[in-house]
Amino acid sequence: MKKYFKKGIWDRYDGWRVRNVDGVFNIMPFIMRSRVESQNYFEENISIDNLEAFVRKYKDEIEGLTTMHVIMAAVVRAFALRPYMNRFVIWNKIYARNHLNMSLVIKRLDMKEETIIKPEFEPEDTLFDVVRRVDEEVKAGRSGEDGSDTDAVINLLSKLPTTLMRIIVWVLMKLDNIGKLPKIINQVSPWHCSVFLTNVGSLGIPPIYHHLTEFGTNSMFIAMGRKEKNIVIGKDGQVREEKTIGLKFSLDDRVCDGQYYAGSIKLMRKFMNNPELLLVPPEEVVVDDGVDKTRLV
After folding, report:
1. Does the N-terminal or the C-terminal CB of the chain have fewer CB atoms within 10 Å?
2. Number of other residues whose CB lies within 10 A of the CB of residue 41
3. In the predicted model, what is the mean pLDDT of the chain?
4. 136, HSE (Cβ side, Cα atoms, 13 Å)
């Protein structure tokens, strides 16, 4: 991802310090000190009749294209246009993440165990790019005997004695607070991401509200549910049946206000309803105006 700002003394290797915000947002991280107590929840039902027709139309041109790819691309595009979504709060400070990535839970080839991948995207990415990047990560995560690098680190830590584990996790959290967490841990940690997306619909259940975590920098968790048929009344007053997918969001209330979140989720819905817009790059990428503009590269 392009480095929009010169790194300053108060920046982290994974984010720029945000200072140009309303005073309330500077105070909120001291009042609501934890990510868990700052969670807000939002639910959205997306009509996927047009989306599925789009997938059928382009499945030959974009190999492996699925409904989930389109949803992911819509999220990536919304982040490119709504940069506050890519902020995070740690140790009472707000940062603008200097990259865009997404944690995903996928099935291993044996279909008995799950593994976690974390593809990285560019704000200019199209649906073609998103499918390619995810496919590369999926192949790498499924091919390893022990799963992804994330699995390897988690498996290693899980074998440690309880007392030692408690000390190591405490040290890692303290290092993360001051931006000194080893980069290798940041890279493999599923909790250090722009957004965590899980498809619980693959389990045959509706979406759930999944909690955020104190460890890491993730400010948004999206759970995608199963496909369902619903009876709706259209704008023309006609009753019809449509297929939908439910999405449930868990959001850190400290990174932006409700109006900004609402506008961003409406934008995601727009791209999911009109996936053709994702076939071309965005006309512009919006840069976070909370970082000092004098440091623009």
Report:
1. C
2. 11
3. 90
4. 9
